[in-house]
Design brief:
This protein is of the alpha/beta class. It has 6 helices and 15 strands. The protein has a 7-stranded mixed β-sheet, covered by helices on one side. The chain starts with 6 loop residues before the first strand and ends in a 5-residue tail after the last strand.
């Protein structure tokens, strides 16, 4: 298992599927999205259609999902998996239960659809588990990002930082800023032409990516890197470039710099349905010298 289970006590024999996911009727409304996503993944991975039903208990071959206990900081992502001739997956939150479904997928993949009987108790060691992908320097298609969300989720990683702008280093391009590549990867209607033509994401695509991530227990953390690494912005608006530190640095003494950045961030953070859906946005602030 990746990551390894915190606790596992093995039994005898194997669980074999009846192709039914059974939801505790007391929590069916909360667990239905988890079950539907789980059923989709089971169909993709094993080519078998799983029926989502409600019931107070499970029959042989079923996977039973339920909630139990009060949510706390310690048990928010902790789940219990009891595997006999049926499976019972329990957590205090839907997120905990969802991570348990990832464990079941990994077990089924290793054992050709069957799962060894036993009892698992599992929880993460760290609240944030993820990495940053620099799409500013190297563009990757939106389909790749969508696939990566699912890969991260499979391994219970939950934070996907997407670095939306950056540039090369002048010294590798003949010390010529005009030859140094730079890019911003998100559509802007406030500043038409700011996003790199043919190699950026539309607002709709980026919103849909975040919605997919939410479905899979992953938070997308957008990053617009300023006031350094900002050649894409100064190329668009040359008057905000620093004359002291180089064209990839913003001029912090120019009021136009703040007007530009305020407008740019407001475009993605404002309105009833903002482009950046999460509670956090990264603003870089590194390597300004």
């Amino acid at each position: 298992m990746i990551p390894a289970l915190q606790e596992w006590k093995g039994g005898d024999g194997y669980w074999r599927s009846s192709c039914r996911l059974v939801l505790d009727p007391r929590y069916a409304a909360e667990l239905n999205p988890v079950a539907n996503t789980f059923a989709e993944d089971l169909a993709v991975m094993f080519g078998r259609k799983y029926k989502v039903a409600e019931g107070v208990s499970a029959c042989s071959g079923d996977i039973f999902l339920t909630l139990a206990g009060k949510e706390t900081e310690e048990n928010r992502e902790k789940y219990y998996l009891d595997v006999s001739d049926r499976m019972v997956l329990t957590g205090a939150t839907t997120q905990a239960v969802f991570w348990g479904t990832r464990t079941i997928l990994q077990m089924m993949e290793q054992y050709d659809g069957a799962v060894p009987q036993g009892v698992a108790v599992d929880w993460p060691n760290y609240p944030k588990r993820g990495f940053m992908l620099d799409v500013g320097r190297k563009f990757v298609p939106i389909g790749f990002l969508r696939d990566y969300v699912k890969i991260m989720s499979y391994y219970k990683m939950n934070c996907f930082q997407i670095h939306l702008n950056d540039n090369g280093f002048k010294k590798f391009y003949g010390n010529d800023w005009s030859q140094t590549p730079a890019a911003f990867r998100l559509e802007s209607t406030v500043f038409p032409g700011l996003a790199t033509e043919g190699a950026h994401y539309s607002k709709k695509e980026f919103v849909e990516l975040q919605m997919l991530a939410e479905q899979y227990g992953v938070t997308v953390l957008p990053e617009i890197d300023v006031p350094a690494h900002s050649l894409a912005f100064t190329r668009y608006k040359p008057e905000i470039a620093s004359k002291e530190y180089g064209e990839d640095h913003l001029d912090l003494f120019n009021p136009e710099t703040y007007l530009f950045l305020d407008s740019l961030f407001a475009e993605y953070l404002g309105g009833e349905n903002p482009v950046f859906r999460g509670k956090e946005v990264h603003i870089g602030t590194d390597e300004y010298d």
